[in-house]
Specification:
The complex is a heterodimer of chains A (about 80) and B (about 350). A three-stranded antiparallel beta sheet of chain A has the order 3-4-5, with no helix packed on it. With about 80 residues, chain A is α+β, with helices and mostly antiparallel strands. Helices cover about 30% and strands about 15% of the residues of chain B. Chain B is α/β, with parallel strands linked by helices and about 350 residues long. The chains are: A alpha+beta (about 80), B alpha/beta (about 350). At the A-B interface, strand 1, strand 2, helix 1, strand 3 and strand 4 of A face strand 1, helix 1, strand 2, helix 2 and strand 3 of B.
Chain lengths: ~80, ~350
């Protein structure tokens, strides 16, 4: 698993993306990077001031429920 | 670890690029709950993988879900409630209670788009219940038929051993008379024993519902999903099995039946999304609706006040495909799910 990025959830079940010091240094800790707002070059990814992700357009294909995905459960090996 | 600060250029790290492409699966303005209002079932299908150990959802768990929805609603754009079980309609009042609450929230928050769907055996789905659920926003109903009556009744039988086809069929006929926007997915499990008889069922469906575009067929091979009878299941294997399913789909299409096609593009399981949770009847939080007894799939609990407590290490295992971009990990994160160093059975309250 990726050790530089880590997901956790707050009490309301919202995802917070955390990053290791090493990766944040690589990304540029003291540049014009932002913890809030969208990143230049990012199509969808935006963060609020708590590091939670927000999307402008919900991708209809990506967000479906059991009616779609349970149909595709592969056999357990 | 610190909250992520976005870089100027996401291409500086591959994982962030993957996250960007699938941001809806992490977004806080999207929530998907698979709710099991009871894990008891009035059926004992021969291939079922569930153990029926848990009972009906308590008032405290139901209240917790409603409080969670109330907390999240102001910032939600999309809320999907997927009803599952057990047989969810065996706890119909819980379904109506929570779905009704969500529908009310949808009226109070016009930005919120509610989608409801239910996987039910159809036995308890009277026309009155169907119309009520439809009015509350349940738009997709998935119901299984495993052959014409004489075959179906051997595979999808009641707990007392009696058949179920006739009653399900009469409910489907009544539902087809209902006006409104909905989708009934007829799920047909094909195996070595029933594939020839399936043609008879297809003709029966065509004769009765052939002009009903809201009824769609999902034809798939029977799978071994961990049930007690797995070793004896007459599953189709190899390319012959693929051909049988393909031929049945072709026949259904030639009869004018509407088919549910496999998703185009990459298939991503809801268990890969960090904004999708399974809430079990005892308030336990899971990710996958198949591996219900796997300790890796018991991530936490919802409290009566609506707060969620979730094991982040386990969550990261299920969501690893979001960072790797690996299509197999996204399609079924259960396969290859890392073992946890301290994995141990989680005590489950009943």
């Amino acid at each position: 698993m990726n050790s530089d990025l880590y997901f956790r959830t707050d009490a309301a079940g919202m995802t917070v993306v955390e990053v290791s010091d090493e990766l944040q240094d690589l990304l540029g800790r003291n540049s014009t990077d932002q913890v809030e707002g969208s990143a230049p070059g990012a199509a969808n990814l935006q963060l609020d001031d708590h590091g939670r992700i927000q999307v402008e357009e919900v991708d209809a294909f990506l967000m479906h429920g059991t009616g779609d995905t349970l149909c595709d459960c592969p056999e357990k090996s | 670890m610190n909250p992520l600060r976005l870089p100027k250029d996401l291409s500086s790290t591959e994982a962030l690029g993957h996250l960007d492409r699938r941001a809806s699966l992490l977004a806080q303005n999207v929530l998907h709950l698979v709710i099991l209002p009871t894990e008891q079932c009035n059926f004992r299908c021969t291939y079922c993988y569930e153990d029926f150990a848990l009972g009906r959802m308590s008032e405290g768990v139901s209240q917790g879900i409603r409080r969670l929805l109330q907390t999240r609603a102001p910032n939600l754009d999309r809320l999907t409630l997927s009803w599952f079980g057990g047989e969810p309609l065996a706890a119909y009042d819980r379904v109506e209670e929570i779905q009704g609450f969500a529908a009310h929230l949808g009226q109070s928050h016009p930005r919120l788009k509610l989608r409801g769907e239910i996987t039910t055996n159809g036995y308890l789905l009277s026309q009155m219940r169907f119309e009520k659920l439809l009015s509350l926003g349940v738009k997709v109903f998935q119901i299984s038929l495993d052959g014409p009556q004489e075959i179906h009744d051997q595979k999808r039988l009641r707990a007392d051993g009696s058949g179920t086809f006739q009653r399900i069929w009469s409910h489907l006929q009544a539902i087809s008379e209902v006006t409104g926007d909905f989708e009934v997915i007829l799920r047909l499990h094909v195996d070595r024993e029933n594939h020839l008889a399936m043609r008879k069922l297809l003709r029966q469906i065509a004769a009765t519902f052939g002009k009903e575009p809201r009824f769609r067929l999902f034809i798939r091979k029977l799978s071994r999903l961990g049930g007690a009878n797995d070793a004896q299941l007459p599953v189709l294997v190899g390319i012959d099995g693929e051909k049988i399913v393909r031929d049945l789909r072709s026949e259904a299409a030639s009869l004018g039946l509407s088919l549910k096609e496999p998703e185009k593009g990459e298939s991503i399981c809801y268990a890969s999304a960090t904004n999708s949770f399974v809430i079990r009847s005892n308030g336990a939080i899971s990710k996958c609706t198949v591996a219900l007894t796997d300790s890796r799939n018991l991530l936490g609990r919802i409290s009566q006040d609506g707060s969620l407590e979730i094991d982040a290490d386990k969550l990261n295992g299920w969501a690893r495909g979001l960072l790797s971009g690996n299509s197999e990990e996204l399609r079924c994160p259960l396969q290859g799910l890392p073992q946890l160093a301290l994995a141990r059975p989680v005590a489950m309250a009943t």
